[in-house]
Amino acid sequence: MMKPKQTKSLRGTQGLISLLASLLSIMVGLLVGLALLSLLNPAHAFSGFLKILTTGLATTEKMAKVLYQAMPLMLCGLAVAFAFKTGLFNIGAAGQYTMGAFCALTVAIALQQPWYIALIAAALGGALLGAIPGICKALFNVNEVITSIMFNWITMYAVNLTINNMPIMLTNYWSKSTIKDRTAPLMDANPAGILPKGGLDTLMNSNYINIGIFIAIGVAIVIWIILQKTVLGYELKACGYNRHASQYAGINAKRNIVLSMIISGALAGLGGGLYYLSGTGQYTLVKVLLGMGFNGIPVALLASSNPLGVIFSSLFISYIQVGGDALQPHFIKENIDIIISAIIYLSAFALLMKGWIAKLILRGSPRNANLEVPALNTAEASVSDPDTTATAQAAQKEDAQ
Amino acid sequence: MSEYVIEMLGITKKFPGIIANDDVTLQLKKGEIHALLGENGAGKSTLMSILFGLYQPDAGQIRKDGEVVQINNPNDANRLHIGMVHQHFKLVDVFTVLDNIILGAEQTKHGILQKHEARAKVLELCQQYGLAVDPDATIEEISVGMQQRVEILKMLFRDNDILIFDEPTAVLTPQEIDELMHSMRGFAKEGKSILFITHKLNEIMAVADRVTVLRKGKHVGTVNVADVTMDDLAEMMVGRKVSFVTEKAEAHVGEAKLRVQNLSVAGRNAAKDKVHNINFSVRGGEIVGIAGIDGNGQTELVHALTGLAPASKGHIFIGNEEVTGASVRTRNNKGLSHIPEDRHKHGLVLDYTLGENLVLKDYFEPQYQHAGFLRFDAITRHAEELIEKFDIRSGQGANTIARSMSGGNQQKAIVARELALSPDVLIAVQPTRGLDVGAIEYIHRQIIAARDSGRAVLLVSLELDEVMNLSDRILVMHDGEIVAEVDAKYATAQELGLYMSGASKQQIAAENEVNA
Ligand SMILES: Nc1ncnc2c1ncn2[C@@H]1O[C@H](COP(=O)(O)OP(=O)(O)OP(=O)(O)O)[C@@H](O)[C@H]1O
Ligand SMILES: [Mg+2]
Fold it and tell me: Which of B406, B410, B433, B442 has most ligand 1 atoms within 8 Å of CB, for mutation?
């Protein structure tokens, strides 16, 4: 047998390829963004482009905003990435996110519990919702995409209906205001329910920042450890890579499908909890799915489903979104949304690039180029699916309001 | 004009940690069948993939009809009329046969697919070369043999005249092998040139004109088949003499370790039983072979025994415990080990490393995990032991991604893993599929060693030679039933062949009546 001369493993090369692919996709996304800008308002295209690129770092306040938005994105991205790794496409992150938001707010406002209890409730709520498509898939072999999409809508309406019928949850219960289409600000209802700021608010001169971003990063690291180092991760990935082989190995595939969806759902739910417990946003009763869960998909794709990569891809996407907001007034809100979505979604095509770059680097070794997770292909197909994209964009718009 | 249609001169190809081809030269004459022989991992598939444009060589050149050509991808190869049937087929499972054949060479009119002409051409080719396929069946419905005919038709449809076959016979039944060889001779007679990879020396002797031998990436020599014997070839390839007969001592049988009573497996859609009312047992210290033509219920029987699919009737015992409805894990823990028929589908997680694959059955045991965390040092150590013992060759040892390993070495990894579990009952399905003669010799000795240490071995193989060589008793399966049991010592290939072909069922019945 030949002794391995090189210590750098194939996996290392794969990691490099993923990184390059992500960077290249981002470039392409940005270029298309620039093209769209020039199309919509040539006079301000370039300055607008610079704004997208620089706003996020311009002031500590903007940086705080980037971190604040990255927090739920990171968790939704983790939810999607985790499911991908185990061979499942959790498009239900939107519903699980909503459920997380609902559980967190109910526990904080109606039950007057502190933030950490509310966060646990958020994760549990998301987990519960994730379990449903998991169980349907495991027991009845119903595709998780279909059940997840159905439950996105069911959750949204159910949550709206419930909140509407819980006067204690609404703004007008806690103050003299007449607003009753959204939940009460936590400041009025339960200041202990707000995530601690840890002094970051004075440091960065922003009300948005809190310790949630550290929680999110910590969770990403834990998820990475679970996938890479544990017996559970070994089993879950085996199911994702090759279902037949995992069955042959005696791995309980049904249990793992459910477990994977539960964990994925808990992540998305936690994302919803973090966002609404920041004390800056109120849950609004509108008949639209929240875009955050869908944006988890490009976040995961851009990171090639690597949990540590998700930390960076969510920061990037949040950064672009914050930059996009600065495009007003030279561009109208609707156009900004289109531009930002184009950049985000094109950036997410990292995987298409991957095979191509692998070919360049390894001078044509198709076997290596094929190393990506099969499930990701499905995901990719669905993302380029106009329907999904449209829904996601519409939802994103609504969320930004 | 050059004497050779294809020349690969001084080809070198490096992969991380290994030189797969080291200054290899291969020259192919027009109208010849040229065999490529070499141990597992010698670099045969790599060399052919270079010719087909899947890899770029690090050094060397390729000539077609004397002119230097650059083959950057399979499309270039196709333009030069080079076609390839891969070791592991590359078909789209959910597409029909016809769609697979025309995929990439579709004729369109105003952007709309024109299938009529393609269909006519495919049917004509089927007729002309006697390749029976159903153009409208999907790939997942048809047998492996038919899938291969689809791959061959793909090449013919593209008017290829340099045909590369990478271990085409490894997955075929003896009958299908005969048919394939017949087709190959026909192609050669028409002036097509064939490159043929196989580990079976008798096939080389039967159809090839010349043979090129590789060893550890290096070119050992090219000889006329007429000038050499099988022993010469084996020696050229392995570098030592190889014995083709397996020596084994008298069996010392003990208690039954695997018992099967009235076992049936239902067919899909309430069709006829795939396995019908089977009874047998395997005792410790013996090898029981199951002979039969492919598709007579062997796969279903094995799946029922191993828990991959449910039995519809009957009982299965491992030792004294009934495991009929038990999970795969339970059976494994009771000492069952299984070398599966399909190494890519069941045997390996291709995206895992070799080390991770070698613990696929026992990663949860305390030696490989602590408090839910995998012990990668122990996993690597285990892998290195097996790599050493079973001579599993790859670029980066335990860290090699299984997908990048050569087919034969993937198989060795599976066999090594299953034997290392020291099973009470070993179910080995085609254990030496795709292995070189040296490796076969070694694996056979290991299986016999397992038997001699008191384990029960159930061997399922389509290769009569293997069944006859290894087994102590032979059961013949036909149409889901066991139609005969013979003592391997006295069995002849003719007799077994008769039983396998089912025509003799009545004869057996008649004979039994006479005896009764
Ligand atoms: N894409 C790849 N990446 C890394 N190593 C590779 C790759 N392809 C092949 N190798 C290595 O190159 C060597 C030669 O492999 P190849 O598949 O050509 O062998 P082979 O002669 O066809 O063997 P077999 O008879 O087992 O099919 C092997 O050690 C294999 O591990
Ligand atoms: Mg090969």
Answer: B406
Residues in chain B: 516
**Which of 1.10.8.60, 3.40.50.300, 3.90.215.10, 3.40.50.2300 would CATH assign to domain B4-238?**
3.40.50.300
CA distance A221 to chain B (A): 15
A&B contacts, CB < 8 Å: 121
CATH of domain B244-335+425-436+458-516: 3.40.50.300
Measured distance CA(A27)–CA(A49) in Å, rounded: 13
Residues B96, B134 contacting (CB under 8 angstroms): no
pLDDT tens readout for residues B448-458? 999 999 999 99
DSSP 3-state of B406? coil
Let me know: does A86 contact A241? Beta carbons within 8 Å.
Answer: no
pLDDT digits (tens, 9 = 90+) for A214-248: 999 999 999 999 999 999 999 999 999 999 999 99
Give pLDDT tens digits for A66-117: 999 999 999 999 999 999 999 999 999 999 999 999 999 999 999 999 999 9
Of all residues in chain A, the one with the smallest CA distance to B58 is A363
Contact A313/A80 with Cβ under 8 angstroms? no
- The answer to whether residue A247 neighbours chain B at the CB level (below 8 Å) is yes
Domain containing A321 — which CATH number?
A: 1.10.3470
ipTM of the complex: 0.88
**A230 and B374 in contact by Cβ < 8 A?**
yes
Global pTM value: 0.86
Q: Under an 8 A CB cutoff, do A247 and B404 touch? A: no
